[in-house]
Amino acid sequence: MKIAIIGGGPGGLYFAALMKQLDPAHDITVWERTAPDDTFGFGVVFSDETLGGIENADTTIAQDMARRFARWTDIDIHYRGESHTVGGQGFAAMSRKELLRLLQERCRDLGVTLRFSTLAPDTGRLCASYDLVVGADGVNSSVRAAHAEVFRPSLDRRHSKYMWLGTDRVFEAFQFFVRQTEWGVVQVHGYPYSATGSTFIVEMHEDVWRRAGFDATEGAGFAPGASDEHAVARVRELFADELDGHQVFANNSKWLNFTTVRNERWHHGNLVLIGDAAHTAHFSIGSGTKLAMEDALALAACLHEHPDAEGALTAYETERRPVVESTQRAAQGSLEWFENIGMYVHQEPTQFCFNLLTRSRRITYDNLRTRDPEFADRVDMAFAAAQGLDGVAPAMFQPYRLGALELRNRVIVSPMDMYSAVDGVPGDFHLVHLGSKAMGGAGLVMTEMVCVSPEGRITPGCTGLWNGEQGDSWRRIVSFVHERSTARIGLQLGHSGRKGSTRLMWEGMDDPLAEGNWEVVGPSPLPYGPGSAVPRELTRADLDRIAADFVAAARRGADAGFDLLELHCAHGYLLSSFLSPIANRRTDAYGGPLENRLRFPLEVFDAVREAWPAERPVIVRISATDWVPDGNTEHDAVEIARAFIAHGADAIDVSSGQVTKDERPAFGRSYQTPFADRIRHEVAAATGAAVIAVGAIASYDDVNSLLLAGRADLCAVGRTHLYDPHWTLHAAAEQEYRGTGAAWPVQFGAGGRKPPAARTDAVRPRLSLLRPDPADQAVHLRWTPARAPAPVS
C-alpha cells in the first residue's frame, strides 16, 4: 500500500512503524507541521493492558519504552491537610519527548519517510494518489474540519480550565492535591515520568478561575509555543507548599478548556481518523497517547487481515468504537466529577478519597478491596462511623430510616410495569411477582405505576386504585409481603397523561390502541412522538378532578396497608409532562417558567401528603433530564427536587428521560447516578431527605460503591431483580454476609450458600515448592530516583 499519514504524534508514528513491520513493501510518508524536537506536554501514562498490546505488536518499541518507564502503584490524595495513600493500581509513565524520539527512530530504521516542519498536501490530492490517508493530526484536526460533512464531529467544550506544566519535583506516586482556596477548589493532577521530572496539571472550574484572577490574560495573543507566564507565576505561588522548593516548568502552557471530541464516522473512502482527531477522553482517566496507540495497533491489524481498504476500515471502526465509547463514558464521569468537585468538599476525608477514586465508575469498591484491602477496611469503618452503624456489614446491608419507616437494607426493587392486570385489578401474577421479590431480600419493594383512574392507565393491562375491588386485591398482596418477608412495600401512584391508551409493551410499546382506546390528556396538545395521539389540553376543572383521583387512590392505598407512597413525576407521564418544557407549552399559571410548571405537581403532592398517614413516608420520582435540547436538565432537577423536599417529600427517586421519543440518552452502567449525586449534595444532604439512585445498577459492587461514595442513600434495582428475584440474598451470600440486613426465609434457609460445583468444590493439591511471600506482592510500590534506571543514550 501507499500510505499518507497527516500528523507525526505517537499515533501516526506508531501506525507507520507497525505497517512497515507487517510489510516492508508499504510506501509510507508522514507529514508533521512542527519540528521533530517540538513537543508539548511532559509525561504520558500507560495502563498494563495497553503495554501488553504494545509488547505483542512490536517488541523493539516495547523494550525501548520499558527501559525509560517510571513505575509505581500508589495514589496519594492530599485533602484538608491529610494525605491518604491507596495502593495496588499499577502505572507506567515516560517522557512524551522521549516517546516521540523512540518512535521517530523506529520509523527511520524501518524505512518510513518522515517530513517534519512540513504541511501535508490537501487531503483531496492525497486521497487521489494514495491507497490510504490517515488523519492523525490531533484534537484540532484540520483533516476532520475539512471533511466535517462526512465525519459529522461533535465538540463538547467543558467548563473547567486546565494547564499542563512540569516540575523537577519527582513524585513517588500519582498525586491529587485538592486545595480549598478563598476562590473555590483548585486541584493538581501530578505524576512522575522520569528520574528528573513530573507532570503537574492544574485544573479548576471556570468560575473559580475567574474569581482567582487567572482571567487577566484571557484573550491575550500568545505567540506559537509561548506560555502564559503570568499564570505560571501564580501557580508557583499558589502551590508553593506542594512544590516544596522545586521549580515549575512551562511548555506551550496556556489555559485550556477540555474538549470532548466525538465523530459519527471515523472513515470515508480511503480516509480515516485515529487518536484525538477521532475522539478524546479527559486526561483524568488516562492518556490520549494510550488511545491513539491502541487505535494505530487496531488499524494496522485490520488492514493486514482484510484484502480491501474499505473492509479493513469498517472492521477497524467496528472494533474500536465500543472500546473508545466505553472509555469516553468513564472519562465523562471523571471530568464531570472534577467540574463539580466543590460539591464534595464537605465529605469526611476517607469518603472523599473513595469518591474521587470511584468517580468514573470503572474503579469500584471490590476493585479497591482487591488492590488495597487496608484502604477498603478504612472506607467501611468511616461509612459506618459517620452513621452510627455496624462497621462489619457491607454498605448495602446497613439499615436505613426513611422518615419513620425502618428498612432492613438499602436495596429497593424498582417500580416495573407488568401490564398484566384485568380492569385495573392486580391478580395472582402480581402476588407472585412482588411476593417473590420481597422474599428475595430487598429492603423495599415498589409496585408498578398504579393508575388513579381508568383514563390514567398507560395500557389496558395497567393496575389501578380507583375502586374497592382493586384496593382489596392490593391488600392481599401487601399482607403477603408483611407476613412472609422482612421487606416493606411501597405504592407508586401515577397518571399516564399523553402516554396513555397504548398497547401492551410486547405488542408495540407506546403504539396507540387500535380499538378500545380512550381520550388522552396533557398540559398542552403536543403528542409524545410521531404516531402518538394528540392529548386534549387540561382545563382547571380537569386538574381539580385529577387531583381528587390521586387523593382517593392514596386513601385506598393507605387502607390496603402500603408502607410508603411514591408520586410518579417522571418518564413523561402526566405530572412529569407538566414539569417538562418539551411537553408543557401552557400560557397560564401552569406553564412557562419552572416555578409555574411545578405548580400542578406540587398541588397534587400536597393533597396526597395530607391524605396519606403522617407517619408513613411520601417520596417522589423525577426525570432528572429530558435528554433533549431545550428540555429539563440536571440543574432544573435540582430545583424540582428542592421544591418537593420543601413541601415535605421524604426522598427523591432520581430517574431520567422518557419524556419524548426524540431523546438521546447517554446509556451506560449506572448512567443516571450522577444526577442523584448532584441532588444529594446540593439539596438533600442539608435537609435530611434521602436520595435514591436508579438506572443500570447491575451488581452489588455498584450498590456498595455508590453508597460508600455518598452518591445516594438507597439504590433501586429493576431488571436485575427480573433476572434473579433473590438477587439481594444472593448478593449477601456472595459477600459472605449473614445478618439482619439479609434474612433468608426459614423455608429457604438451606439455599443460603452457593451450591457446590466442579470449580468450587474441588480441593486443589499443592503444586509449588515454595509458597509466595506476601511481602513480595507489594500493594505499595513507589517511584524514587534511587530506583530509576540510568539514562539510555
Q: What this model shows, in words?
A:
- It is a single chain.
- With 793 residues, this protein is α/β, with parallel strands linked by helices.
- The protein contains 28 helices and 29 strands.
- Helix 23 (634-646) packs parallel to helix 24.
- It is globular and about 85 Å long.
- 50% of the residues are buried.
- Residues 788-793 have low confidence and may be disordered.
- This is Bifunctional salicylyl-CoA 5-hydroxylase/oxidoreductase.
- Residues 396-732 form the NADH:flavin oxidoreductase/NADH oxidase N-terminal domain.
- InterPro entries: Aldolase_TIM (IPR013785), FAD-bd (IPR002938), FAD/NAD-bd_sf (IPR036188), OxRdtase_FMN_N (IPR001155), YqjM-like (IPR044152).
- Residues 3-328 form the FAD-binding domain.
- It comes from Streptomyces endocoffeicus.
Instruction: Indicate the radius of gyration in whole angstroms.
Output: 29 Å
- How many separate helices? 28
Mean pLDDT: 93
Shape: globular
Task: Give the percentage of residues in beta strands.
Answer: 15-25%
Distance N terminus to C terminus?
A: 34 Å
The main β sheet shows up as:
8 strands, mixed
The structural class is alpha/beta
Helix content: 25-40%
The count of DSSP E runs of length 2 or more, i.e. the number of strands, is: 29
Contiguous low-pLDDT stretches (5 residues minimum) are 788-793
Domain FAD-binding: 3-328
Domain NADH:flavin oxidoreductase/NADH oxidase N-terminal: 396-732
Organism: Streptomyces endocoffeicus
Protein name: Bifunctional salicylyl-CoA 5-hydroxylase/oxidoreductase
